[in-house]
Amino acid sequence: QVQLVESGGGLVHTGGSLRLSCAASGLDFSNYAMAWFRQLPGQDRKFVARITRNLVKATNTEFAQGRFFISRDNANNTVHLQMNDLQFEDTAVYFCNAGRNGTNYWGKGTQVFVSS
Q: Which class for 112: exposed (0-12), middle (13-18), buried (19 or more C-beta within 10 A)?
């Protein structure tokens, strides 16, 4: 059974930083592209960042580029999202995603709240 468990969310002041982690189990982690999405209340889930199995990275240019950085640790089946200079608009539930050949798995999310 595939499990993705996010951690690291919480309350932070404007301008602060958080590091989210996603621990994966039950899948061949190193062969999956890993990604982070976020969802605001009443809105669709939105792409934040992705890192492929070949370590190619992509970041949402609208709001994440230059502030959010994705990395992966294949030895520990973990993907991280370093978020810097957080703004109130970054308040959301952040979800971990594992994808390969059209198959996607999701975690349950971790809440990030940025106080202005």
A: buried
The answer to whether the CB of 23 falls within 8 A of the CB of 14 is: no
Residue recorded with tokens 């609208």: 62
Cα distance between residue 71 and residue 78, in whole Å: 9
Tokens 């973990």, residue located: 78
Mean confidence (pLDDT) of the chain: 96
Predicted confidence (pLDDT) per residue in 1-18, tens digit: 999 999 999 999 999 999
